[in-house]
Backbone:
């Protein structure tokens, strides 16, 4: 789903989301990388799939836990970095 | 010209609930709202089910606190109403009634709390006064700085966004006609009843119930009546979901503005009566129809009170703050009943109308139907009748 033509990307990086390895490029936001992999980020209390809604820092639907710090962050505002470790079930 | 027994103006909690009770009792009911249902205070509040005497009564001295004792009788009825509401409406309203704390942090607050709990027990509320350690045994999330807490076994919370749609659906099932997005432009006494209209729509009703929250004075003015209800703008906040912090109770503070509770999804709702700033109309009046402006000091003060009471919330992200408008009466008590100056003209609103709304609505519907509800005597608009001695 990434645009492949006439675009320059940052360095290829690998991150881990819920223990699963994910390929991304420097300069992308975490939400972008997660969305490329799967539309659903988590399941709600009724077991229904939920993803990000606004992609601009307003709805907080894409809140994830960054490890090892445990800091909570909105994936849509968090740039990826190599070796980044993320959980969505916090 | 449409005809009905009762016209309800206002599609919030009280209006939709009253329409349901009236229709279920066999009356023909039409309800109109200028917007969609539940968009005002009914849907903007944080959903506390609070049965202890409210802090806003205690801070105004003894006379008002004694008045507030009278609301305990209503609170006891509201406990029963809320316990049966999900079954009665056949709806999931996220009603949780696992108890609520009103905490104290200073010796002065403890004294205030002791007198309050004594009053409440005397009036028949299921209450206990706990010291700090006893409170923390039930609620380990409370701060070590909490010296004492009033514990009300029946307190809790419900989803304010679910209640109005559930009442509206029940009212429709019972045969009521609910009309949204229709702003009344005329209302007058005609013969023994009332005639109201909005553009091409004309409705003739035997009786009229105004349950329009902060808009109630405006609706009453159309009928040449004063209603002593005033718009007030408040602040509510919500944190991200937490799975580590569990707050299964309603938490309030006897000396500071605070209400806290946790939603089923895990978010912590934080409110408690911190002000925001009402919008103004072009000619200088207050405009309850425009979202109030957030006040930074209120946000900081509200969150500080929350962290001092439940320290673990400091580790959560705030994801949203919103402002909303409710109405408070001239003496802080609700205004529910018939206006003596204009028989058949009923008002229901003003204060605690989420917690007490189902009970106001049930009782005022009963009274409109012809069976007196003496439980409402002390909140009757009759106490403000002097304002209408040149009106009507």
Residues:
């Amino acid at each position: 789903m990434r645009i492949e033509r006439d675009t320059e990307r940052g360095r290829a990086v690998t991150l881990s989301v819920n223990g699963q390895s994910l390929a991304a490029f420097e300069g992308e936001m975490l939400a972008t990388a997660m969305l490329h992999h799967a539309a659903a980020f988590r399941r709600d209390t009724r077991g229904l799939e939920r993803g990000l809604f606004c992609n601009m820092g307003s709805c907080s639907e894409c809140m994830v836990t960054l490890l090892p710090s445990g800091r909570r962050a909105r994936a849509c505002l968090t740039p990826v970095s190599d070796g980044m470790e993320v959980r969505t079930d916090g | 010209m449409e005809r009905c027994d009762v016209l309800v103006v206002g599609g919030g909690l009280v209006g939709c609930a009253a329409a349901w009770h009236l229709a279920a009792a066999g009356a023909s009911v039409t309800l109109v709202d200028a917007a969609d249902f539940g968009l005002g205070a009914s849907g903007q509040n944080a959903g506390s089910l609070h049965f202890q005497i409210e802090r806003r009564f205690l801070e105004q001295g003894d006379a008002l606190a004694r008045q507030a004792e009278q609301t305990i009788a209503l609170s006891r009825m509201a406990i029963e109403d809320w316990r049966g509401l999900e079954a009665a409406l056949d709806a999931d309203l996220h009603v949780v009634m696992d108890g609520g704390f009103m905490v104290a942090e200073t010796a002065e607050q403890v004294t205030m709390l002791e007198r309050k709990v004594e009053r409440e027990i005397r009036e028949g509320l299921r209450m206990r006064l706990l010291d700090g350690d006893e409170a923390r045994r039930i609620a380990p999330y409370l701060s070590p700085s909490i010296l004492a807490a009033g514990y009300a076994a029946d307190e809790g919370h419900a989803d304010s966004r679910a209640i109005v749609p559930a009442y509206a659906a029940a009212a429709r099932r019972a045969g009521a006609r609910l009309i949204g997005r229709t702003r009344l432009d005329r209302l007058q006494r005609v013969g023994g009843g009332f005639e109201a209209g909005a553009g091409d729509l004309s409705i003739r009703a035997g009786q009229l119930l105004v349950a329009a929250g902060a808009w109630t004075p405006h609706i009453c003015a159309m009928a040449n009546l004063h209603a002593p209800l005033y718009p007030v703008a408040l602040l509510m906040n919500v944190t991200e979901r937490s799975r580590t912090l569990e707050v299964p109770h309603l938490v309030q503070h006897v000396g500071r503005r605070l209400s806290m509770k946790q939603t089923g999804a895990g978010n912590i709702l934080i409110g408690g009566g911190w002000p925001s700033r009402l919008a103004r109309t072009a000619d200088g009046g207050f405009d309850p129809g425009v979202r109030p402006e957030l006040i930074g000091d209120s946000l900081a003060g509200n969150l500080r009170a929350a962290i001092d009471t439940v320290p673990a919330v400091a580790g959560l992200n705030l994801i949203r703050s919103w402002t909303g408008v409710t109405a408070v009466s001239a003496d802080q008590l609700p205004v529910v009943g018939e206006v003596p100056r204009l028989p058949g003209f009923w008002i229901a609103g003003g204060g605690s109308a989420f917690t007490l709304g189902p009970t106001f609505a049930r009782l005022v519907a009963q009274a409109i139907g012809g069976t007196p509800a003496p439980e409402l005597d002390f909140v009757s608009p009759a106490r403000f009748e002097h304002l209408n001695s040149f009106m009507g």
